[in-house]
Structures are given as C-alpha cells and as structure tokens.
Amino acid sequence: MITMAKTRKEKIYSDDDMSLAINAVKSGKSLRQVAKGFNIPFSTLRSRCNGTYDSTTTKGPCPVLTKEEEDGLAKWMIHRGICGYPQTKEQLLDSVQIICKNLKKKTPFINNRPSRRWYNSFCKRHKELLSLRTRKKLTKKRVTVTEKALRDWFKEIANHLESKKLLNINPTRIFNLDERAFFLASNTDNFIVKKGQKVVSNLCNDDKFCLTTLLTCNTEGQMPPGLIMFKGVKLPANITKFLPNSFVAGKSDSGWITGKSFYDYIVNIFYPWCVTNKIEFPVILYVDGRSSHLTLPLSKFCFDKQIELISLYPDATYLMQPLDVALFKPLEKAYKDSLMDWCQDHSGESLNKENFGTVLCKALNRLDLKKIMNNGFQVSGLYPFSADAINYTKLLGCTSEENDDKNEDAAQNNSSNTHANFFENQIEHETLDLFKKSAITGVWSGLEKDRGLYEFWLKTCVNGNSSSSKFNIQQTNISDSLHPLSKKENIEMHEVPDKTTMISKVDESDMPLSKFVLSYNILNNDNNIR
After folding, report:
1. How many domains in the chain?
2. Residue, of 190 and 41, whose pLDDT is higher
3. Which of 202, 364, 404, 411 is deepest in the core (most CB within 10 A)?
4. Is 306 inside any structural domain?
5. How do residues 309-347 score in pLDDT, each as one tens digit?
6. Closest CA to 505 of 126, 96, 124
C-alpha cells in the first residue's frame, strides 16, 4: 500500500490578523469565537494572549545565528558585491563556520560548517536582499587593465590612507602577502651522463605534486612565519617535527588555502608576530585583488586590530604585487638550487613534504630580502606611494585580437538587427506602435489575444537586442542609486565561480570610503565576532 507523505500546514493568517484577534480577546470576546472568526488555531491564539510566545518567535529549533549576526552577514555580502567582489556560497559558509567556532556555539553541523539546508534557508530569509546570479565570464583581453584604472586606484587609496594618516609611515609597517606553489620534484631537464646514453631517467616522487605556501614580507625584508598548506584532516607528526621556526603548517581537505586557514593565519601568526616584533600599529597589508579567502570575521578582526587590509587592483598583480614583481622569480631559482643541494646531500633521494620547509627556508636565506623587497615595493608604487612608479608600458594594450573581437561583436549585432527588423516588418504598424507604447509604460494595454505576440517581440527585439529597436526605453540602473562607489566607474567583471551571490540593496552608512579597503566593522553593535 502506498502511503502519502503528510503535508505540513502553513499559517494562513497574517500578523495583522493576529494583532486584531488579540485586541478582540482583550476587549472581552470569546477566545474560541475570535480564533474561528480570524481563522487562527485556538492553541496558537491562546499562547499569544497568555504571553507564552511573542510576535518574534518562529517555528522550528533555535537558529544557529541571531538575527543581528545574519543581518551583519547579509550587509557584508552586499558591500563586497557592490565593490565588484561578490561572495560565493563557500565564502559565506567559511564566515559562518568561523563565527560559530569563535563564539563557541553549539551547532548541529559537522565541524561547525553549515549544511546545504541551512544555506537554502538563509537565502530564503534574506531573499529581499540577496539572490543568486551567474557572473559573465570574460576573456583576459576583455578585462585589460588600463593606465587610467590604475591611476584611479592609486588616487582612491591615497585618499583613504591620507584620511587615516598612513600615507607616509615607517616602511616596517607596510606588508604584502601572496601565495605560491612549489613543486617537490626538480624540473631540471639537462644532466651530464655517459656519452652515447640514449635514455636519461631521474627517479623522483610525483613530479606534479606541489605545496601551496603563503608568504608575507614588509618593505624592509622582515618576514613573519610563512604558511605551508598540507592536504588531509590531520598533520603527521613528522611534518611538525622537521618544520623550521620560519614556517607554520596548515591543513585543509584540498591542500589549498581556505577562508578559515587564511583567517587563522592572520589571527594566530601575522598579528602576534607584529606584536612580538614591536611593529607599530596601524599596519598596511596589501593582498591580491582576486583573493577569495576574505571572510566577515577577518574584516572585523583587521578593523579591531588596526590592520588596514587593502586589495590591489584586480588582474594587475604582475605590476603592483611586490612579492610577485621582485621576490618570487629569484626565490624559485634559489629554491631550485637548494633542492638540488638537498638531493645531493641525501644520496639522490627525492624531496618529501616533511623536509620541504627546510629546503624553502634555505632558499630564502640565500636571498637579500631587504634589497629585493625595497626594490619590489618601490617598483610597485606602494612605497613610496606613487602612481608614477608603475611601468605602464608593460600593460596589455589593445591587440589585433581585441579589434577582431569588436568586429565580430559588430557583425553579430548587425545579424541580430536584420532578424529583428524582419520580424517587426511582419507586424502591422498600429500593432507595432502599441507594442512600443506598452514597452515604455511597462504595462500591456492591448487586446489579450495579442499579449503572447507582444511578449515575444519584447523578448526578441527589445530585451534581447536593444540596439535593433527604433526607440529607447529609459531604464534605471538600481545599483547606481545604492552607493556612491557604483557611480564612479563601471566595475570590471572578472571570471568568478558560478552561482555567485549578487546584491540588490545596501545601507551605505556602514561602508568604508574605498571599495578596495577590506578591513571594516560592518557590525557596529556586535563586538563578539572575532
């Protein structure tokens, strides 16, 4: 016998009905009669009248986060979306996981990481503010960085630093952070062997295995302990045993840096190191503009501890990232030499992950970090802070391929125009005029039998091909009315993961002056999320 699943009855009364019913009971009317008249369950009305439950009580178990905490998350996601850095589902879950851990909340989640059901419910609770959108993926030549964009970035950040009195500070207070992958197998292809030997083999471990390392350095070459990420749930004892003091070990399921591991590094490694070495606060920490490791607790922690977390301009790290510009290339060469030395000292053994930190530490010791980083920050225009220090000749200019793209787009538009014009020519002039008037007002004012044709015309000739239309429909860009940052320039769209959380509303009073400033306290009345 097939049993039908029971359907839960949702409330069919409004909050206004409940208020009227409570007032009716207070005026002396029968509780049961009022419940029947307003179609409210008797037990529900009795509980509300007795004060057992109030209007803010919701059904189901107690929420994991309070309303204030969830509203803070929504505000943070809104702000990042307006600034051109929309947050993904994973970044939201990372933030919630860190909040639950820091506040020692008891949750039904595995490792305090919210489930898919919680995520779906969160989106429903904030459906008026947040929605899911798939960002358009743009090729590299369509997001070419321009000199004007970089100079605008320097101007915007200079204004922010000037307002904080951080424009001309001691260079030991200016840091850059970036991650790099290092292979455990040597990529040397040339070896000296016996003349005539046809096949040259070099025994090694997996030649594609690499470890992600997070390095931080200031203008004077001072380097806090770096973070080496390992794959797995637990760290083997040998890794921590052989790891030098200049590095710390982190772990994740994928072996990559996550929002949680990045937060732990800033909180437990970078900040204590600055305090121990008597680095004066506030400090400036420049990070990659495309980093996906930002979480709400990190933004608040940096704000509370006077760490100015500033995003470099996206897709311009090859010009503006001091570590990328000056350090990584000589470090890779030094690492290669140190790796060869280690293999020779160990009778040709392949480097394992337990000894990786030792080899990388020796590679760093081969370099004059102060000279390298002084040059790197200067060439990047970050210290001294100057837009003129950038070598703009290295910018990717408008190539012939880009011109070909423009021609191709124009050809596609012409093709679309042809089809749209052909379709409109098949419609009577009076009907077409009515279509255009309805499109302007937004309300169909014609016969019901023509509604289907109107909607098809609207989708094909107006929404799908606005350039083919013989009239202009004025549309208001909602995002332009939300926040002054969105009015300055069109935010460049970069390739991000699908199903990215996009934004529709925001309270601009809580936002920092610059969209590139990542450290702020969006939860003005909440001092617990750290």
Report:
1. 3
2. 41
3. 364
4. yes
5. 999 988 888 899 999 999 999 999 999 999 989 888 887
6. 126
Same domain for 374 and 265: yes
Residue 223 · residue 215 · CB < 8 Å: yes
Neighbours of 238 (CB within 10 A): 12
- Strands (E) across 334-390 are located at none
- 70 contact partners, CB below 8 Å, separation of at least 6: 63, 122, 125, 126
CB 231, CB 252: distance < 8 Å: yes
Tokens encoding 286 = 């420049």
Residue 362 · residue 338 · CB < 8 Å: yes
Q: How many C-beta atoms surround the C-beta of residue 309 within 10 A?
A: 23
Do residues 327 and 369 share a domain? yes
Both tokens of residue 13?
Answer: 């009364």
Helices (H), 380-521: 400-425, 429-441, 451-457, 485-488
The dihedral over CA atoms of 321, 325, 329, 330, expressed in degrees to the nearest 10, equals -110
Query: How much is the pTM?
Result: 0.63
Structural domain containing residue 298: 157-187+205-392
Q: Are 228 and 247 in contact (CB under 8 A)?
A: yes
- Gap between the Cα atoms of 261 and 275, Å rounded: 20
Report d(CA 322, CA 219) in Å as an integer. Answer: 9
The single residue listed with the structure tokens 């279509």 is: 435
